[in-house]
Amino acid sequence: MHIIITDAWLAKSRAMHLSGLKLVAAGALASVLLMLGSITTYHWFFLEGVRQGWPGFASVARIVHQNQPESRDAYLRANLDAMARKLGEMQARMMQIDSLGERVAGLAGLNPADFKAAGAGGALVSGRELSVNELLTAMDDLEQVTGSRVDWLTVIESRLFDQKIQRTLVPTEPPVPGVRVGSRFGFRIDPITGRSALHTGLDFPADTGTPILAAAGGVVVVQEYHFAYGNMVEIDHGNELITRYAHASAVDVKKGDIVKRGQKIGEVGSTGRSTGPHLHFEVWVSGVPQDPQRFLAAGEGVAARQVASGDATRR
């Protein structure tokens, strides 16, 4: 294709030769430019008409955008369904927490009925879809139930903690582990005078230097040498309960020290009124000597139950 351009003013002419490929490219470029211009003009004209309120443009805008609410509603419905399913999962998990709370409340010595939630059930019948307000109401109810359960579990935790503290302050730990009791609590023939006398504790025969352990946690209130008890230690466990450890060859604590259950406080010896190396162990409640064997037996029972519980859990 040949194109001749003539300039009358300059009296010149120019010839251009366009091949088929160039002609097609030029046509395509012109079409693209025409489309872009048309789209730009349409959008400017349409938006300007809607903004200015030209007659007929408002109805056209509603027709163009009429499907947007439907899409938005479908999106909201899909999200509501997902939230409803999640809410159902949370309610099922709350039922599991209720069941666990009842069992733990029993272990803490509380009434499990106080933790038990109101029952619900019945045949499963397909119902209508939840609305936004209904879903929000159900979530508020679940939040209130969750708050009450948290408060109740906090009470249970506090009770279990108190019980744990009380157990650590009761003398149930053998002061000389692995040693059989010699002289027991009660009346016996005194080994020195040969007469009947009240033995106010337990004797644990052991070699000199054998560790003496605190039967429970507490505060050392006495650490002194006594003419009858020899090197003696007394530990106050609170609630007017005191343990006494006598005839020690060495003492590792002093008055005012805080000791833990099972902590080494001295070593077996034969100081004071004694015929041989042993630990004399006493338990006093409100100023009255008690049979220490009752406390030690209680500790053995707790240990046996813990072992049995651990075996059952492993099975």
What does this structure look like?
The protein is α+β, with helices and mostly antiparallel strands and 315 residues long. Helix content is 45%, strand content 22%. The chain has five helices and 14 strands. The protein has helices spanning 20-52, 57-65, 68-107, 132-168, 292-314; strands at 2-7, 12-17, 186-189, 196-199, 202-205, 211-213, 218-226, 230-236, 241-248, 250-251, 258-259, 264-267, 278-285, 288-290. Strand 8 and strand 9 (241-248) form a beta hairpin. The longest helix has 40 residues, at 68-107. It starts with a strand and ends with a helix.
SSE inventory with pairings:
Layout: E1 2-7, E2 12-17, H1 20-52, H2 57-65, H3 68-107, H4 132-168, E3 186-189, E4 196-199, E5 202-205, E6 211-213, E7 218-226, E8 230-236, E9 241-248, E10 250-251, E11 258-259, E12 264-267, E13 278-285, E14 288-290, H5 292-314
Antiparallel strand pairs: 1-2, 3-4, 5-13, 6-12, 7-8, 7-11, 8-9, 9-13, 10-12, 13-14
Q: Which strand-content bin applies to the residues?
A: 15-25%
Strand count, sense and closure of the main sheet?
7 strands, antiparallel
Radius of gyration: 46 Å
Q: In one word, what is the shape? A: elongated
Helical percent range? 40-55%
Number of helices: 5
Uncertain regions: pLDDT < 50 for 5+ in a row?
Answer: 119-126
Structural class: alpha+beta
Q: Tally of extended strands?
A: 14
Order of helices and strands: EEHHHHEEEEEEEEEEEEH
Mean pLDDT metric: 77
Amino-to-carboxy terminus distance = 96 Å
